[in-house]
Amino acid sequence: MKLSDFAVRRPVTIAMIFLLIVLLGLVSMNKLNLDLFPELDLPLALAITSYENVGPEEMEELVTRPLESALGTVNGIKSINSISRQGSSLVVLEFSWGTDMNFAINQMREKIDLISSFLPADADKTMILKLDPNMMPIIVIGFSGDYDLVDLDKLATDVIQPRLERVEGVASVTVSGGVKREIRISAVPQRLQAYGLSLEQIIAQLRMENRDVSAGAIEEGLKEQIVRVVGAFESVQEIEDLQIPLSSGGYVRRAEIARVEDTFTDKKEFVYMDGEPSVQIAVQKQTDANTVKVSEAVRVAIADLEKDLPQKSTINIGFDQAEYINLALDQVKENAYIGAGLAVLILFLFLRNLRSTLIIGLAIPIAIIATFILMFFAGLTLNIITLGGLALGIGMMVDCSIVILENIYRYRQNGYSKIAAAREGATEVSLAVTASTLTTIVVFLPIVYVGLASQIFRPMAWTVSFALLASLVVALTLVPMLSSKILRVDALGVANGSSVPAGNKAEQKGKKKKFKPKEKLFTTWGNFLTALDELYRRILGWSIQHRKTVVFLTLGLFIMSIAVIPLVGMEFLPQQDSGEYTVNISLPNGTAVRETQRVTKIVEQYIEEMPEHEWAIYAVGLEAGMISSGSTPEKAIIRGKLTEKRERTRSLNQVLDDLRNKCASIPGAKIEINALDVAMGGLQSPIEIGLTGDNLEVLEMLAQTIATRVKEVEGAREVKTSIEDARPEVHLKLQRKKAEQYGINTTQLSSLLSTAINGTTATRYREKGEEIDVRIVLDEQYRRNINDLESLMISSPY
Predict the structure, then answer these.
(1) Which strand (E) or helix (H) includes residue 186?
(2) Do 761 and 775 form a contact (C-beta atoms < 8 A)?
(3) Which residue, 121, 227, 274, 715, shows the most beta carbons closer than 10 Å to its own?
(4) CB atoms inside a 10 Å sphere around CB 376
(5) In this structure, are strands 770-778 and 181-187 parallel, antiparallel, or unpaired?
(6) Of 192, 46, 24, which Cα lies nearest the Cα of 127?
């Protein structure tokens, strides 16, 4: 028994099956994740190593090159690129498509473990990451109020961060832009010299005194008691009164040789939300979490937090990826609804039968709902690609149903009963519609095997295929079953373009019939279709008689269409006017953060003068990118959003061009302004040119030459090279012969300078459950310039 025959004979069974499909489809639709784009399994991995206060050349020699040599033996590597910067090394590995990235990551860890002993001991452990656009924050929050940054940072760290981290689907929450409390011990070098002390002795003394140590247990009667030596500092005053032993005998009070302050860390990062000093809170989701659901849960948590936070504090959600996702998905769904509605309307115009249109109108949503079931079990998500494929599939969904319905209708006009017409009409064309559907599905198969395009468009291919398969099943079962029950041939049939069934023409001949307005409209439309059909017959006849002319005319149109391709242009993904943009500000290396802050204020003023401005977050001392190399005082990043597209007269690119012209007048600053590429997370520039070679100086010269040539290309802007200007350095070289006489080595000198300039965290002071760093540093007035460093005294063991 054929499928269509079974559907006609068992209508109740078919109805129950499709009712179950609808219920399962609705459940599957609710369980499908919502994302902007499908999850990308990119064959890229990162190896990140931090080594504080080490220059780029040393990073390349000590860290980057050993890592490249070790990682070069990992299976499946296509290319290796590295970036060595001040204090950080980034090695990017590109693998061949199809590589098992989980296995590759494990191999990378094994290779690095083999050479870990050869890397500098002070370097941080190398982090291995698989490049994933989901590493980008989905929500960026600005937290401000009538409080100083210390209180804001404490509230953000102790209250907001833990609450948001408990939200289901949140992977991590990062707080930046605030300041931390610290106990700073500012030593005076002259006093240290007078008492014969060094910074290392003060650090050692603090670490020995600030300890709680278990001394064992003793038995007293029938009880055993633990003995603990309690020496942890209980107040800042206790740190000031600590006695330091002298080599000459006696003690000196710490306050006599250093100033002890309960203060805050030096601020190197500044965050502003619409001009107000703020603390930035970035939320990252788990890889398999639903972006929209996580965003909604975070917003609910923020609403609850606002009730518990002080009244003068404000939480502003600056960037929310879910807003763009919902906007894009709503547009795709709206287009799908319009497409389905137009399809039903056109069917009604051509069939001119309400019951026939109803059958097709039921077939479309049921096929769509059935598609959701297949998408769910295939592990797909509802995103702009899959919904686009579903919208594309809607137009093809009705093809099979129309062919079968039209054939059933023809059988009914020929006098067959409802059941016989449904059975014979569907059976006659079932093989043809099946072959037609399968050939359409085959067209989408190559998309699965075309590299990066397959990662993005493979879900679309699967969605279209699922939609077509669902529509085929609906056409072979549901359409014949409904036709056998509700299809009726009336006087407005479409056969031969006539308004009267063929069997009734003789009876109606010679009789006057008063047409209703609807019947008159359908009759007029039927006559138009008949005339159109006649015109096509004449054109077809002419084409058959002038075969050569038709062939050459078609060939000419084909050649013309190919010639027009360069005028149309090509892009991997279309640009989106999301209204969001980023501004990356770079000043010459070595620029103080105060100067970067001043330049950022100028750009901020330009942005706030734009009539399309909605909000912006300004981060000074932070570098743009998914992987940050720490505090960078000469860099700043601004992330902003314009008002909705319908509320402004200028496009995003026009607004940004105006901003570029204004920022061009700022001397000494490199300002890069880009529309936010939500598709790829802004990971790279649209065009990148790579140069390889052994001589860095030659490469730098060639890079500058190429950059100059590229700037002359029409449409090119913000051309830059990856080679940054050298950061100004002061080199202190140890005179080894003299140093050997005093028993001093390079490690002692570097340790002294590091403590004197940046400070060293000797221990931690605990107060009310909070751990506060106790940092020892040279007093600020004795480390302002090179002369102060030259006058530093270093203790000799002799």
Answers:
(1) strand 181-187
(2) yes
(3) 274
(4) 20
(5) parallel
(6) 46
* Token representation of residue 303: 């609403």
pLDDT of residue 555: 94
In order of 141, 299, 316, 491, 773, the CA distances from 303 in angstroms are 13, 6, 11, 63, 33
Instruction: Tell me, rounded to whole angstroms, the distance of Cα 652 from its chain centroid.
Output: 20
C-alpha 347/C-alpha 395 separation (Å) is: 12
Q: What does DSSP assign to residue 40? A: P
- Dist CA 62 CA 407 (whole Å): 77
- Output the 3-class SS for 733-784: CCCHHHHHHHCCCHHHHHHHHHHHHCCEEEEEEEECCEEEEEEEEECHHHCC
Secondary structure of residue 513 in the 3-state scheme: coil
Rounded to a whole number of angstroms, the CA Rg of the chain reads 37
Residue 507: its pLDDT value, please? Answer: 43
Return the number of other C-beta atoms located less than 10 Å from residue 219's C-beta.
8
Helix H, strand E, coil C: the string for 529-563 is HHHHHHHHHHHHHHHHHCHHHHHHHHHHHHHHHHH
Tokens of 398: 């009705």
Give me the numbers of helices (H) and strands (E) for the chain, helices first please: 26, 22
**What is the per-residue burial (b if ≥16 Cβ within 10 Å, else e) of 347-358?**
bbebbbbeebbe
Question: Can you read off the two tokens belonging to residue 139?
Answer: 């929500």
- List C-alpha distances in Å: 391 to 29, 335, 338: 15, 7, 10
Contact between 489 and 502 (Cβ < 8 Å): no
**Residue matched to tokens 């059958």:** 359
The distance in angstroms from the start CA to the end CA of the chain is 104
Own/partner long-range contacts of 91-94 (Cβ < 8 Å, ≥24 apart): 91/46, 91/47, 91/48, 91/64, 91/67, 92/44, 92/45, 92/46, 92/131, 93/44, 93/45, 93/46, 93/47, 94/43, 94/44
Measuring CA to CA, how many Å separate 411 from each of 339, 342, 405, 407, 425?
30, 27, 10, 6, 6
For residue 549, is pLDDT > 70?
Answer: yes
Strand (E) or helix (H) holding 659: helix 652-663
pLDDT at residue number 492: 41
**Cβ contacts of residue 362 below 8 Å, gap of 6+?**
478, 482
Q: Which two three-digit tokens encode residue 472? A: 């085929």
Q: Which residue has the tokens 């407005």?
A: 492
The tens digit of pLDDT for each residue in 726-753 reads 667 777 788 888 888 788 888 778 878 8
Pairing mode of beta strands 635-642, 613-620: antiparallel
pTM score of the predicted model: 0.69
Spatial separation of the C-alpha atoms in residues 364 and 397, rounded to whole Å: 7
What span, in angstroms and rounded, lies between the C-alpha atoms of 243 and 251?
6
| Pairing label, strands 580-586, 313-320 | unpaired
Check: CB of residue 67 under 8 Å from CB of residue 89: yes
Cα-flanking dihedrals φ and ψ of residue 260, to 5°? -100, 120
